[in-house]
Amino acid sequence: MRIEAENISVRLGKVDALRxxxxxxxxxxxxxxxxxxxxxxxxxxRALANLRPSDSGHVRYAGKSAAxxxxxxxxxxxxxxxxxxxxxxPMRVEALVALGxxxxxxxxxxxxxxDRAAIERALLAADIVALRDxxxxxxxxxxxxxxxxxxxxxxxxxxxxxDEPVAALDPLHQLQVMDLLRQKAAxxxxxxxxxxHRPAPPQAPADDDAHQxxxxxxxxxxxxxxxxxxxxxDGVEVxxxxxxxxxxxxxxxxxx
Length: 256
Description:
single chain, alpha/beta, 2 domains, six-stranded mixed sheet, three-stranded antiparallel sheet, disordered C terminus
């Protein structure tokens, strides 16, 4: 499935979180959104997932709008992993992962063999089989994120939108999760979009990095306007180049 956003803008109160953003991702690749806090990565992911409709512009899924696809079908086509990792009740880890199968079931329908098999695959992929009978308040923050990742994987959607999925993980599980996401993209043509603060480790690069840049004022020299994001927070340095973050009239520019 191809996901494409055209000229989308999102306004949060008096702040333009996104303005005039173009974005596209094709099946079988990982697209990485890179930028500091407040640069609009989460807002863009939520707009792509139809969780925060854009104020202007269009998002299309395989050429269709969200209305044309339908809410029920869209919930089967897109899995979304939020960055917060919050779970507000002490449910069992396995029960949490099972929530990922709800889009595939009718109301009050019991889980089928296919659902149970998908849950097992997700538990194994996220390396939390040993945690299945613990409650969510009995595991660490990193284990909680892996449980939430397993819930997203259990949907077995063609598209996974993951917001900083490795932020709370130890180095070993960071690499395991990035490898898992690459496998997810490669198997069955699934699209994976990963939001993160900095580029992935060299061992697990993204296929694309959508560098977020700030449009310069009229007559300004773009080179003179670029600031060192490491010291100012105004951009992110990638491969020796500094890419400022989203602001007014911004674009998500893809670099292959």
